[in-house]
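Propose amino acids for all 465 sites.
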């Protein structure tokens, strides 16, 4: 084995087994930092705020698993509406493909839960422990009463915020006010207590301790994102031609005359990076596209009196001096497929009828002959009123000439969100049966709402011909 190979093996071994070094991201200000703050406020505002909203006397967004109902403002979805979940998952995947191909890792940098909650935990850490230098100094100092107090305060704040996050998560499945009452009276069920603890612990561990390690080692997206990138994808990149050779210098120095590039090698871009990479080394899978390095580099360039944009959003084609194409086949195809699924989702939801009729034929007896000489089949109809209001229904049957229907109750009333099992008998003269198995149709119509109607097919069995 050559010396180079041995050195390479040593470097790999060190990278695999080296002790993790904590990253201390420096606070950064700028237009992209403001966008990240806005994303955090909006996304966490929705997450923590939605369970508090009320709609028609109930929680606006509630996934009632025991009752198998999912309330989303004025819409009530049942397990039979699984197609809508399928549509949402497909659209989410297509949107990820589309925006990644178009603008890189926008999801990771601005909307990923790991990024969003890590930002909040970093804010808490900066508020309690101070800026980057103060944190590093505190961690290097020996344990003292003051250090213990600061660390305890930080972790207490983290745990409190994580516990509230776990509580909010469970509030999407158990009405919030009821959950809060039982929390303070120590009357939580085992599953509720488990999920509050588990989700809170996951938030505390991922955003407080693991942070960039989730992005680097656990998230699969970083590994397959390259399959969606091309030379026209928008990425965060360092302008090597303009920046090199890098080196320190005085503010008013004519750096071009000295043979230097625009980069003053201040390493600020490394200090603000939440994953600890050096963007000047080129595009790396560890880059989450948060653009913190753009903000801080623009600030440095402004102070030095240089043109901004040494680090910027650009494309590989632009870096190489080639024209960039925004509308390219991959983008158009993703957009058309996404638009198709979104249109289908909206249309399906718009024409959805919150009523279901299931017909189950009595299989114990194929048919029987009545005293009047008619052939009778017995069915059990399951009427599912997926609307929130009570409705009275009319039921009819057709498909065979002279078909008669016998009900055990005169009035068919199904309460909102309830299921009614309705025994039904159909009778027909044997002479009217053209074949042994005939097709019949049950028609169910709401008395007070003509839009609530459904038609279901069934089989009517008679004697052999």
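Proposal:
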């Amino acid at each position: 084995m050559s010396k180079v190979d041995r050195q390479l093996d040593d470097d790999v071994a060190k990278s695999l087994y080296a002790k993790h070094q904590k990253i201390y991201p420096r606070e950064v200000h700028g237009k992209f930092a403001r966008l990240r703050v806005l994303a955090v406020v909006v996304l966490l505002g929705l997450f923590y705020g939605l369970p508090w909203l009320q709609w028609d006397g109930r929680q606006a967004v509630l996934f009632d698993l025991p009752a198998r109902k999912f309330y989303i403002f004025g819409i009530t979805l049942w397990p039979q509406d699984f197609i809508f979940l399928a549509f949402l998952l497909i659209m989410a995947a297509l949107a990820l493909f589309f925006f990644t191909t178009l603008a890189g890792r926008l999801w990771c940098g601005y909307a990923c839960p790991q990024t969003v909650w890590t930002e909040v935990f970093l804010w808490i850490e900066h508020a309690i422990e101070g800026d980057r230098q103060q944190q590093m100094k505190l961690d290097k100092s020996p344990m003292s009463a003051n250090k213990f107090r600061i660390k305890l305060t930080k972790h207490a704040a983290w745990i409190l915020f994580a516990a509230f996050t776990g509580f909010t998560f469970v509030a999407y499945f158990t009405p919030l006010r009821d959950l809060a009452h039982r929390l303070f009276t120590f009357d939580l069920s085992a599953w509720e207590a488990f999920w509050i603890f588990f989700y809170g612990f996951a938030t505390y561990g991922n955003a407080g301790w693991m942070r960039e390690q989730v992005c680097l080692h656990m998230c699969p997206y970083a590994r397959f994102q390259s399959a969606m990138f091309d030379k026209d994808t928008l990425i965060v990149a360092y302008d090597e031609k303009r920046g090199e050779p890098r080196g320190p210098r005085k503010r008013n120095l004519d750096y071009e005359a000295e043979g230097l590039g625009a980069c003053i090698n201040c390493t600020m871009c490394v200090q603000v990076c939440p994953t600890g990479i050096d963007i000047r080394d080129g595009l790396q899978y560890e880059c989450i596209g948060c653009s913190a390095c753009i903000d801080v580099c623009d600030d440095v360039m402004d102070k030095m009196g240089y043109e901004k944009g040494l680090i910027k959003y650009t494309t590989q084609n632009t870096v190489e001096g080639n024209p960039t194409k925004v509308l390219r086949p991959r983008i158009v195809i993703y957009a058309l497929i996404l638009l198709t699924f979104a249109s289908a989702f909206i249309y399906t939801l718009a024409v959805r009828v919150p009523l279901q009729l299931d017909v189950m034929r009595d299989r114990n007896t194929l048919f029987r002959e009545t005293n009047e000489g008619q052939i009778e089949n017995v069915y059990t109809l399951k009427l599912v009123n997926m609307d929130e209001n009570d409705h009275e229904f009319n039921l009819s049957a057709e498909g065979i000439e002279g078909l008669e229907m016998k009900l055990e109750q005169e009035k068919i009333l199904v309460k909102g969100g309830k299921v009614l099992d309705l025994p039904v008998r159909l009778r027909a003269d044997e002479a009217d049966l053209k074949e042994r198995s005939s097709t019949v149709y049950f028609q169910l119509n709401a008395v007070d709402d003509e839009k609530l109607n459904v038609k279901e097919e069934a089989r009517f069995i008679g004697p052999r011909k």
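The chain has two domains: 18-352, 355-461. Residues 18-352 form one domain.
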